[in-house]
Fold this sequence. Notes:
By secondary structure, the protein is α/β, with parallel strands linked by helices.
Amino acid sequence: MKRIVKLIISFLYLPLNKILMFKSPLHSIFYFHSVYRETRGKFEEQIKFIEKHAAPVNLTENDELKPRKKYFSLTFDDGFQNLLENVIPFLEKKNLPAVIFIPTNYIGKKPEWSISNEIYEKDKSEFIMTVEQIKNLNKQLFSIGSHTCSHPYLSKLTGEEIKHELQESKRILESIVDYEIDMLSFPHGDYSQEVIEIAEELGYKKMFGILAGNVNYKDKPIGRIFVSPNEWKIELWLKINGGYNWQQLVKKLKDYI
């Protein structure tokens, strides 16, 4: 029922978003978690569908996007090893870039953070990439970002704890990939103004949440939208075209009020 309500709201919001973005590029950033062998075919279909409607953008670059054109970027939270078999070869074949966000405490291990959403239930038994696997990724296409050390709810931590999560994960990842880590994905989509300020002080330039929104790299966080393995084609079409971008707008209104 909740899914249907979101779908209806997105249909109604779509014309307004087209007006708001009339002279601007429309950039959708999608995020995924695991892609299993049994959902690989569905994932590939989704990417092919997205490609038909929008052009790919590498989030590590700051190319100026053309007004009234549609773009997309791909991100993956947690860096599960199943990506190596079920995602990476396909994206390499398609020459599509992506950012993979890694929680450093669990490199080479299974996740130990709380996973309550049934969509991610199977992830509890999945392993996160090892140091060698991260090192061996094609750097021309796949960039690494921080997903903190322990995958916590950052807003519930003290300032010192926040700093440790962001600074230490940055240090560890930079020692592995040998380039600057300046992108951060907030675990659980959770953050506060203090978290943002500390992240900026530590050198993070792009921070990503889990609510769809019209992408502006100056936003903290930058909007993203989840793509489920069971996504209806109409849902995906609406997400590509900005129909779900009311989510971050509603959050901003709530914060303002």
